[in-house]
């Protein structure tokens, strides 16, 4: 059992990177990737925890980049990052500034609605370097505005709701190049989030592939089993490799997200790493990456 898509408190997960690694080790995963949103801040602690354990777990340093897209959401996974390249640093800095500007607009909307709070007050409550809508949802829970996180999105933070502000995201070509400059491989995450009809899915994924995206996360809890099968067949037709992940953010965050499990609560098979991703990583060894060398 493996997992190629998960999050820590470096972005919007519950566990610290060290706790996330310990949880993956406790679940006896053979391979585990940490792919926080627009940040690599958790990779050092996660890598150190894995290398210091006697579990033999293979750690895959990663990132999940928000990409500019006209409909839905486009998230690009970078898997097997070997270093924090200058190009990736620049991209993360740009995305961090964009995200903070978006957050300031959200706070302004909340203030106009009678919620007196500053962004600094919200930031002080979380350890994440990338504050996003899930953190605002947690804040709304704390002040009693909503009872649970999903209600916050449904009533206030989701698209078309009163506190929603678009997060523009990165240019796709820039994101692909940044991932490659760091030694990683670009993979399209949960393609159903693109909000593209099945009738246009083939041509859309092919266009994305032509920008240098090599892999497709066909298996994700948001996809039904039959949809995962269709996406895997599409990937093979287009010459892309296939990955699978849980998009795990921590225990109790989402009822359908369990580490090591994907569509239909299926265990994530080893083949998605050893037969699909690994051949594209070359001589990858996380123990030789920057995340294990930096003191």
Average of per-residue pLDDT values: 93
Give the CA-based shape. globular
Strand order in space, largest sheet: 1-2-3-4-5-6-7
Share of residues in helices: 40-55%
Name the poorly predicted regions.
none
Number of helices, where a helix is a run of at least 4 consecutive DSSP H or I residues:
11
- Through-space gap between termini: 31 Å
How would you classify the helix and strand content by structural class?
alpha/beta
- Major sheet: size, sense and barrel closure? 7 strands, mixed
Count the strands? 9
Radius of gyration (CA) equals 18 Å
* Helix/strand order, N-terminal first: EHEHEEHHHHHEHEHEEEHH
Can you characterise this structure?
- With 295 residues, the protein is an alpha/beta fold.
- The chain has eleven helices and nine strands.
- Helix 1 (17-26) links the parallel strand 1 (2-3) and strand 2.
- The two termini are 31 Å apart.
- The model has no long low-confidence stretch (mean pLDDT 93).
């Amino acid at each position: 059992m493996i997992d190629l898509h998960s999050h820590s408190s470096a972005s919007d997960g519950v566990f610290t990177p060290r706790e996330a690694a310990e949880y993956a080790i406790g679940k006896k995963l053979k391979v585990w990737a940490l792919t926080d949103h627009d940040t690599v801040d958790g990779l050092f602690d996660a890598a150190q925890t894995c290398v210091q354990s006697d579990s033999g777990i293979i750690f895959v340093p990663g990132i999940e980049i928000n990409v500019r897209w006209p409909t839905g959401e486009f998230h690009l996974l970078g898997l097997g990052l070997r270093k924090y390249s200058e190009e990736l640093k620049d991209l993360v800095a740009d995305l961090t500034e964009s995200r903070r500007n978006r957050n300031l607009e959200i706070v302004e909307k909340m203030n106009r609605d009678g919620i007196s709070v500053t962004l600094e007050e919200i930031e002080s409550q979380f350890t994440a370097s990338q504050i996003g809508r899930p953190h605002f949802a947690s804040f709304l829970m704390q002040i009693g505005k909503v009872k649970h996180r999903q209600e916050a999105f449904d009533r206030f933070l989701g698209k078309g709701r009163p506190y929603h502000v678009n997060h523009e995201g990165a240019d796709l070509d820039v994101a692909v190049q940044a991932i490659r400059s760091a030694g990683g491989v670009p993979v399209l995450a949960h393609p159903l989030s693109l909000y593209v009809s099945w009738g246009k899915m083939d041509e859309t994924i092919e266009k994305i592939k032509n920008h240098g995206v090599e892999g497709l996360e066909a298996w994700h809890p948001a996809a039904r089993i039959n949809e995962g099968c269709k996406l895997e067949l599409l990937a093979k037709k287009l010459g892309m490799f296939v990955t699978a992940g849980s998009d795990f953010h921590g225990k109790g965050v989402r009822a359908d997200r369990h580490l090591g499990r994907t569509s239909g609560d299926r265990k994530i098979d080893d083949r998605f790493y050893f037969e699909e991703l690994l051949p594209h990583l070359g001589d990858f060894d996380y123990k030789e990456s920057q995340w294990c060398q930096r003191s």
